[in-house]
Structures are given as C-alpha cells and as structure tokens.
Design a protein that fits this description.
The chain is mostly helical and 87 residues long. It has five helices and no strands. The longest helix has 22 residues. The radius of gyration is 12 Å and the shape is globular.
Length: 87
C-alpha cells in the first residue's frame, strides 16, 4: 500500500471509529464539538469523521478525552474494524 493510500486508509478508519464512538454515546456532532476546548467547528469534525481531513495527535487526544476512550484503544479498534470491513 502506498503512503498516500495508507494515509487515506488510516484517516478514514479513524473517522469511522470516532463517529461510532460519538453515536454510541448518543451525541450529535454539535454536542461533541461543545466538549472540545479547541473550539473547532462542526464541519471540521465532519471532515475528520469522513476521513477527508487528517487528525493531528493533539486533536485525536482531545477527541478521545471527550469520548472517554484511550487513544491507543480507539486507534486499535479503528484499524481492526477497517481490516474486517475490507475482507
């Protein structure tokens, strides 16, 4: 897998897992955005969830804190679920 393709794969997998975690809490995007101290907009969160925008480590940690999930767990689950979906 090429670097750009791998980057898109990881971004999409992370975004899907973020969306799953948010929805499992019953939260709207607006609710999650309100929890974030960085003040990002809903469209930015949408672009993360869609995998069209890459997360920085700082933003990933911030989102994980609000969702109450350790970042390594979220990343592992995201990649595992993405692999299962590709099979």
């Amino acid at each position: 897998m090429g670097n750009r393709r791998a980057d898109r794969y990881v971004s999409r997998a992370l975004g899907e897992e973020l969306r799953r975690r948010r929805e499992a809490r019953g939260w709207s995007r607006a609710r999650l955005v309100a929890c974030l101290p960085s003040g990002i907009k809903g469209r930015t969160l949408l672009s993360y969830e869609d995998g069209t925008r890459q997360l920085t480590v700082v933003r990933l940690l911030e989102l994980c804190r609000c969702l109450d999930v350790p970042a390594p767990v979220l990343l592992t689950d995201a990649l595992r679920n993405a692999r299962m979906e590709r099979s």
